[in-house]
Amino acid sequence: MAASRLEDAAPLYARAADAGHVQARVQQARLWLFGMLGPADPAAAIEELRLAESAGDAGAGCLLASIALGGIALTRDGSIDARLRAAVEARHAPALLAAAIHFGRKSDPGDQALCLRMLGDAANAGHATAAALLAERLANGEGTAADPVAAAALRGQLAAHGIPPLPACSALPPFEAPAPPRQLAFAAETRPMPRSMLSTRPAIAVIEGLLSRDECRLLMASAQPYLRASRTVDPATGRPAAMPLRTSSDASFDPVAEDFALRCVQWRIARAAGAELVDAERLIVLRYEPGQEYRPHRDYLPSATIARDRSQAGNRARTICVYLNDVEDGGETVFPVAGVEIAPRAGTAVVFDNLLADGTPDPESLHAGNPVRRGVKWLATLWLRQRRYRDF
């Protein structure tokens, strides 16, 4: 695997799995799930993961729960809660992080206490992202009394590994669906969220309190190590290229590296836009420093790009952008034709259509990201195709 000789690794994993090595079975399932050996085969991967789960592997159960969020390869039902609960009880660090973020969205003091405890357990297990989220909660007194000494100690440990502190994030309290306190209940999160319509052509809406502070920080912390200069689709060639149109940095989340927490946030974002997770391209997280901007552009794709990238999914029907931090000045999202301007606010989402009702591109969907004048702007963007884009 380290030498990228996947064809040689696969039969060895199969032999080890047949001999009873559970982790080999999980790795074999991942090869099939993510299409590392050819076309993705979620059904074969699920069969292997179920065998690993029955042998007591908590990570296999957590991955099955993650697959079920897509609602295609597995049914999205109560098994998600059951599998995540089992992984939490097994002290599986990614499950602890996901459960912590889930409880952190709820205002009940017991839920907040669970969030902090699980972030601490995941951090003690070596999960750097959980440690980063815990440091921010301790520094700001979120769900507990502020503890600047403990926060500084955690930040110091993270800095020693090259992980910088996260930007300030004072998101509004997230929209809270009715759910029993101190219980995992992801099904409750499928309820529609209130939105404010700002325009009908193009259709533009704002959703306040979509993401919690923990979720905003999760996306920033996960993207930070992978940021690179942004590129834009060249309309002449249909290929990504560095262009002065867009001067930000960004990171794209490879599905291979996504855990349950990242999948769950993307699922929440897609559902808020009235779509399914399987309709979404890879999530993009962008960072704009002072002076950086995204000049007026449209999100729908040229035919050459569609032809090369899952043409059966069609064009980008809708875009949803979520602001992840507080911007000191600038960075507004502007729709010149509609006369709409939206100031960034952490946790708030902007949803807009790129196509007309007949599926043709809408030129009035022109939009831009104003230059950041002071501070830094972080933004998550999910482009939603007309039809299914992902394998699961």
From TrEMBL:
InterPro entries: Oxoglu/Fe-dep_dioxygenase_dom (IPR005123), P4HA-like (IPR045054), Pro_4_hyd_alph (IPR006620), Pro_4_hyd_alph_FE2OG_OXY (IPR044862), TPR-like_helical_dom_sf (IPR011990)
Cofactor(s) needed by this chain: L-ascorbate
SMART domains to which the protein is assigned, alphabetical: P4Hc (SM00702)
Keyword Iron (UniProt): yes
Keyword field: Dioxygenase, Endoplasmic reticulum, Glycoprotein, Iron, Metal-binding, Oxidoreductase, Vitamin C
Domain Fe2OG dioxygenase as annotated: residue spans: 279-386
UniProt KW Glycoprotein keyword: yes
Record's protein name: 2OG-Fe(II) oxygenase
